[in-house]
Amino acid sequence: MVLIFAAENDYSAKKVMEWLRFFSIKFMCVHNGEISIIKGSINASDKKKLNSNLSICINDKIIDIEEITAIWYRSAQVRLTSSYKYRAGQFKQDSLDDMLAQYLDGHCRTQEDYLAFLFSRKRTLGSNAVGSANKLASLTIANELGIDVPKTIFAQENQFEEMAKPYNGLIVKSIDITFSHTGNGKQVMSYTDHLDRSLIRSGKSATMLAFAQAEIKKRYEIRSFYIKGKFYSSAVLSQTNEFTKIDHRKYHAGPRNRTVTAKLPEDLESRLHQLCTILGYDTGSFDLIKGQDDKFYFLEINPVGQYVNPAKHSNYNINKIIAEYLAYGE
């Protein structure tokens, strides 16, 4: 049986599950808070069956952990059904009820960590411990590995203007995940764009860390999905549309940008593979650009990577590749 930890409406997870059905492989999709430990024991007298006496409950079904052959951490983590009742709001040190809730929260986390530990002994894709990547750490390691990265500056906002002075063109983007909100029939989303220097605040106290990178004149953008040492890359020809020159997601009018199959240089793939090894990623989506100077620049990696568009436009059947790994291994 394959366990898939994913958000309820994750499109990619649904497509992988279709392939698992085709392969006649049993699976269960686990959303946050839909798993609980029923019972278990550690039998010290039988070292070969150390974990054979644990049963869990998912969607009202009792499962022996020995039935589970593979785990895919797509976009969710191990969470116990009982845990959320103990995780509401801030704990107050002077409240006995809140202190007990904090104690029970630790009890739940211990069980969750133990399940994740047992799952790590299965065939896995992704990691229970990996959330969004730290962009600054990724850029630092990439630079140390000899991968080209844009010149990057970051500072508290009251120090940022001075840091930005030497640069003629700066690109601003989120230092963390992209902001997105949908409500009242409208969507608000953060994009990558030129820095408007008139918006830089100076001489004021601020704690927000501003982040920017020197603009790289692009030939095209590259999206590369990485899985177990292999790369599936696509080039996004975003420079033909005035609205998408900085961020290919920022469509306004005109035809969609053309996306074609691409191949990264072997030396670059080797260094990116080293980056993933250091970060502890066995899958993820790389954002890169090919500059007009013919260099490839690393921008970021997302361990919970989206691969729908590269797969669609470059004829990569990534959903099948993932399902085959979960079903049969390498």
Describe the structure using short key phrases.
alpha+beta; D-amino Acid Aminotransferase, Chain A, domain 1; 3 domains; 5-stranded antiparallel beta sheet; 4-stranded parallel beta sheet; 18 strands; globular
Describe what you observe in this structure.
With 330 residues, this protein is α+β, with helices and mostly antiparallel strands. The chain folds into three domains: 2-125, no CATH class; 151-215, no CATH class; 217-330, D-amino Acid Aminotransferase, Chain A, domain 1, CATH 3.30.470.20. It has seven helices and 18 strands. The protein has helices at residues 11-22, 96-119, 135-144, 157-164, 266-279, 308-314, 318-328; strands at 2-5, 27-30, 35-39, 55-58, 61-64, 70-73, 123-125, 152-156, 170-172, 180-183, 186-189, 193-194, 209-214, 218-227, 230-237, 258-262, 283-291, 296-302. Strands 16-15-14-17-18 form a five-stranded antiparallel beta sheet. A four-stranded parallel beta sheet has the order 2-1-6-7, with helices on one face. Strands 8-13-9-12 form a four-stranded antiparallel beta sheet, with helices on one face. Strand 4 (55-58) and strand 5 (61-64) form a beta hairpin. Helix 1 (11-22) crosses helix 7. The protein is globular, with a radius of gyration of 23 Å. The protein starts with a strand and ends with a helix. 26% of the residues are buried.
